[in-house]
Design goal:
Blueprint: E1 22-28, E2 31-38, H1 40-49, E3 64-70, E4 92-96, E5 99-103, E6 107-112, E7 117-122, H2 127-132, H3 135-153, E8 157-159, E9 161-166, E10 169-174, H4 181-187, E11 191-194, E12 198-203, E13 206-210, E14 227-238, E15 243-245, H5 249-258, H6 273-284, E16 286-291, H7 297-305
Parallel strand pairs: 2-3, 3-7, 10-14, 14-16
Antiparallel strand pairs: 1-2, 4-5, 5-6, 6-7, 8-12, 9-10, 9-11, 12-13, 13-14, 15-16
Amino acid sequence: MSRGTPQADYPFERATAPAGPGDRTISLSGLTVRLDGMDAAAERFVAERFRRYLLGAHAAQPDLRLTFRVDPAAPYLEPRPAGGTLSGYQMEHVVIADILYHRSVTVCAKLDLKAATGIVLRRPIDEAVELEDPIHMAVENLLRSCLAWTVLRRGGLMLHAASVVREGRCYLFFGTSNAGKSTIASICGGQVISDDLTMVMPEGGAFVAIGSPFRGTYTACEDLTGRYPIAGVYRLIKDERVFIEKRPAAIAFGDFVANLPFVVGELERQPWAWGAIEAAFGRLNVKYLHFRKDPSFWDAIAAEER
C-alpha cells in the first residue's frame, strides 16, 4: 500500500453511532482486548470464537481497545465483481508514524499504537459483502493485525509458527505457507496452541508462548489457554532425513523476520520495531529442523537438548 492510503485522510472520528450494543473483553493469558459497540453478528462471532478467553468483567486498562461504529462512506475495499475468482483474502494495512490503518471489504480501522485504542468502522452488509468478507473473517483478521503490532510494542512478536506444548514447555516451528506447520501439528502428539500464528511475549528475561485461538486448519484439540516457556524455535524444512542444523545468524534472522506477518512489510518505515525483534531473536536461538511426515523429529530435538 502506498503512503497515500485513503484511510490516512479519512475523518474516522466523525462516525459516532455504534455498530451495535455488543461489548466483550478477551484475555489471552493476561493480554486483554476490549471490543465495544459491536453489532449482533460480530458479538456472536467473538462470543463463540473466544469463548475460552472471555472475561466476565471489563479490564480497567486493556492492552488493546477497539470501538466499532457504523459508517457507510469509509474507504473500504470494494467487493470483487459477481462471478469473479477469489484469489486470497482482501486486506490492506499500513503504519504511518504510530498509527495503524487496516481495511478489508467489511471493516476500516485506525489504531493509535501508543495509546492502544482504535476506531473500527463497519460497513453495512449486503450479499456481495457477506459473500466475500463475512464478519467472522473481517473481525479475526482485524484482531490479528492489531495484536501483531500491540505485542510488538510490548517487546513481543506474532510469529507465523506452529506451537506445540510438551511437558509444560512450548516448541515453535515456523515457516511460510506449505512449510509444514499444520503437518507438525497433526503428527506431534502434544498439545497444540496453533498451526498458524503464535504470540510470543517476554517474561522474566525469557519468552513465553501465549494460548490463543488463532489457528489455521488444525482443530483436533480445544484451544489452549495459559503461558508456556519456550524450549526451542525451529525453521521447518521438509526432507527425507531428520536432523537439526545451525545456520549463520544473518540467514536465520532474515528467515525469522520474513515470518512476522502484518509487521514485516512495514519495518523499513518503523525503525523502532527492530530493537524488539532483534532482542527476541537473540534469546530464542533459532535453528533449522529437517523433518519428514512422522514424529521422529522429536528424537532429534531430544538428542539436541541432551
